[in-house]
Amino acid sequence: MKPLSWLLVKKDWRGGDRMPRTGGVIIATNHLSWADPVLLAHFLYNHGRWPVVLAKSTLFKVPFLGHAVREMCAIPVDRGSDEAARSLRESAQRLRDGGAILFYPEGTCTRDPRLWPMVGKTGAARLALESGAPVIPVAHWGAQELLPYGDTWPRPLPRKTFRVMVGPPVDLSKYAGRAPHADVLRAATADIMAAITAQLAELRGEKAPAVPYDSTER
User: Fold this and answer.
1) pLDDT digits 0-9 by tens, 68-95
2) Lowest-pLDDT range, 17-26, 41-50, 62-71, 168-177?
3) Closest among 127, 104, 84, 94 to 33, alpha carbons compared
4) What pLDDT was estimated at residue 83?
5) CATH assignment of the domain containing 44
6) Which end of the chain has a smaller Cβ tally under 10 Å, C or N?
7) How many domains are there within the chain?
8) Considering the entire predicted model, what is its pTM?
9) What DSSP line would sit under 129-173, residue for residue?
10) Angle, nearest 10°, between helix axes 123-131 and 182-204?
């Protein structure tokens, strides 16, 4: 994937020194394009971490792509089924083994018209509170220019720039010792998404919306 990444985009990587080099860690990021897992994998690998991606189970059956996600030791996710809980259990075990879980709390590419992060789902927060693993917010920008959401083929010319900004760990200490009820998980998720959005606002040089887009209300 690294040669493909170098070929397709220029790099503007910031805050890489904030990425823990060892120990279990949850890397929470925004989702703009089907291309950003590849580009983020390159960034994380170059900063000392092997990215463990949660990928839709159907991707494991796609020629070439299925081989790639298996070789990356990705965790399959069966959306809308009881098996989804199994992916979180496997993620927790990978964290105990010192893995770096690349998590998209939104669950899908953003539907916000201006491509800001949406309201997140609670899986990453639950995993963080139950495991005690740090959550590192990572924002990125540019993958959507290479491969807009819904497109089949990339747009390599002119060559795009893939920008990454790593923030400090999300402070979830106020939730320590509290039972993971729905209101706690939603509040912790909001804190995680706010941290990602703050990094993206700095990366874009723009002011983020006061209220995140909620796809469930549309």
Assistant:
1) 778 778 888 876 656 667 888 899 999 9
2) 62-71
3) 104
4) 65
5) 3.40.1130.10
6) C
7) 1
8) 0.92
9) HHH---EEEEEEESHHHHS-TT-SS---SSPEEEEEEEPPPP--G
10) 110
CB 149 within 8 A of CB 33: yes
The rounded distance, in Å, linking the Cα atoms of 165 and 174 is 25
Structure tokens of 118?
Answer: 């949406």
- Report pLDDT digits (tens) over 130-166: 999 999 999 999 999 999 998 988 999 999 999 999 9
CA angle 56, 161, 8 (to 5 degrees): 65
Q: How far apart are CA 193 and CA 29, in angstroms?
A: 8
**Sequence-ordered list of residues with C-beta below 8 angstroms from that of 113, at least 6 positions apart, any chain:** 213
Residue type for position 32: L
Per the model's pLDDT, the better-predicted residue between 53 and 186 turns out to be: 186
- CB within 8 Å of 77: residues ≥ 6 apart: 54, 55, 56, 57, 84, 87
SS3 at position 16: helix
- 87: containing domain: 2-151+160-217
Query: How many other CB atoms sit within 10 Å of the CB of residue 108?
Result: 13
